[in-house]
Write a structure and sequence with these properties.
The chain is α+β, with helices and mostly antiparallel strands and about 180 residues long. It has a domain at about 55-185. The chain has 4 helices and 6 strands, in the order αβααββαβββ. It has a 6-stranded antiparallel beta sheet with strand order 1-4-5-6-2-3. It is globular and about 50 Å long.
Length: about 180
């Protein structure tokens, strides 16, 4: 039984490795198509993006969501505070809000994806008494690239969602409300 399971794993793995080595550069292995325009030799198309990967990069994750609590409970785990000791994001938060109110940035409802108006944003801010320091969590949607020859990882943030703190009856943060999503591309 063990040999059969091992064989079932090794055969597809061996076949896929053999196919990979015989593929021509500049084609999509699944479809046999050429790379998208703008792709250079040694690059591959990033799945679902229509863009070329940087030379030497391997896409290791797409649309990964990374959450960062930027205002951890000071009475909680000291490591949570230490992890964000270098955070200096007030300029980013204020910059995003300024661009919204100037009309140069459209943001979206986190749940529906629908565009929000400046009136919608004013209403959201009003729910938190216009106190942007209550934004306690940032949620980034990212693509991750690995450069094997350099042993380096690069993360490209595609959007950020601001999360306002919600408090229980003891004044402790128990959750975060997604205010909106701002695209970064």
């Amino acid at each position: 039984m063990r040999k059969i399971v091992l064989l079932m794993i090794l055969v597809p793995l061996t076949v896929s490795c053999g196919q990979r080595g015989s593929e021509k550069k500049g084609t999509d292995p699944a479809a046999g198509n050429e790379l998208p325009s703008g792709a250079q030799p040694g690059t591959e198309a990033a799945p679902n993006s229509g863009t070329a990967l940087p030379s030497g990069a391997v896409l290791i994750a797409t649309d990964i969501v990374t959450e960062v609590v930027i205002r951890p409970d000071p009475e909680g785990d000291p490591w949570d505070t230490e992890k964000v000791a270098g955070y200096k994001g007030d300029a980013m938060i204020d910059g995003v809000f300024n661009r919204i109110y100037e009309g140069t940035l459209t943001v979206f409802d986190y749940h529906s994806g629908e565009p929000l108006t400046t009136a919608d944003i004013k209403k959201i801010e009003g729910e938190f008494k216009n106190d942007r320091t209550k934004i306690g969590k940032l949620s980034f949607t990212e693509d991750w690239y690995y450069y094997p020859s350099e042993n380096r990882i690069e993360k490209k943030a595609k959007s950020v969602t601001f999360g306002y703190e919600l408090y229980n009856n003891l004044g402790k943060v128990y959750a975060y409300r997604a205010a909106f999503r701002a695209d970064l591309q």
